[in-house]
Amino acid sequence: xxxxxxxxxxxxxxxxxxxxxxxxxxxxxxxxxxxxxxxxxxxxxxxxxxxxxxxxxxxxxxxxxxxxxxxxxxxxxxxxxxxxxxxxxxxxxxxxxxxxxxxxxxxxxxxxxxxxxxxxxxxxxxxxxxxxxxxxxxxxxxxxxxxxxxxxxxxxxxxxxxxxxxxxxxxxxxxxxxxxxxxxxxxxxxxxxxxxxxxxxxxxxxxxxxxxxxxxxxxxxxxx
Length: 224
Ligand code: SAM
Known about the structure:
- It is a single chain.
- This protein is an alpha/beta fold.
- The chain folds into two domains: 3-108, Cobalt-precorrin-4 Transmethylase, domain 1 (3-Layer(aba) Sandwich), CATH 3.40.1010; 115-219, Tetrapyrrole methylase, C-terminal domain (Methyltransferase, Cobalt-precorrin-4 Transmethylase, Domain 2, 2-Layer Sandwich).
- The chain has helices spanning 19-27, 36-45, 60-72, 93-101, 115-122, 141-148, 164-175, 199-206; strands at 4-6, 30-33, 52-54, 77-80, 106-108, 129-133, 154-159, 180-185, 193-198, 215-219.
- α3 (60-72) packs parallel to α4 and α7 runs antiparallel to α8.
- The longest helix is centred in the N-terminal third of the chain and has 13 residues, at 60-72.
- Bound molecules: S-adenosylmethionine.
- S-adenosylmethionine binds next to β7 and β10.
């Protein structure tokens, strides 16, 4: 039956793809990829030879109706992003919404995403958490930080290594330097590391270091 599949792909370690993800990528009529060059390396590794089409933040509005028509016409489409789960700080939401509107079945496979291992590794409460993804860079950043100062759930942020220290300093300013946090870098990769401590300890650890790789920041909620 024709469907939209959202297929999570590894965030570093290629062993993290599921058997079902490989099968769905093999069986789909078309794979929609955020970056076809990137995904072709993954497909080659798993010996999958499949027609690919581009689907990224710059063309998703333009291509969405054509994709909906293709699936309605009987084809199955698998959406992948560069890494992790599509629609999690990556394109996907718009396509899912439009497919649901058109009565198309949507199925997201469980699989790799960066924020779950970062949250669990942090040792901070994982019973209630809020995923904030990337904070706005300029407009709305201060308002958001002020709102988050009252958040009691554990908070999850995606951040670039170049902005890490600046962001930690702003967190310390708004949440207090003693607030507990955890930084997971290069999850599932050779240089994976998690640093835990207060915001001030983490600032001290990362300041004056060249920070490389991909980063998730976990911050404890406010203790009432
Ligand atoms: N869709 C992805 C997911 O499911 O996690 C997220 C894509 S978002 C464009 C990329 C961000 O995810 C990175 O800047 C980083 O914050 C986080 N990320 C992705 N892979 C990571 C890894 N291996 N280690 C730590 N963080 C990672």
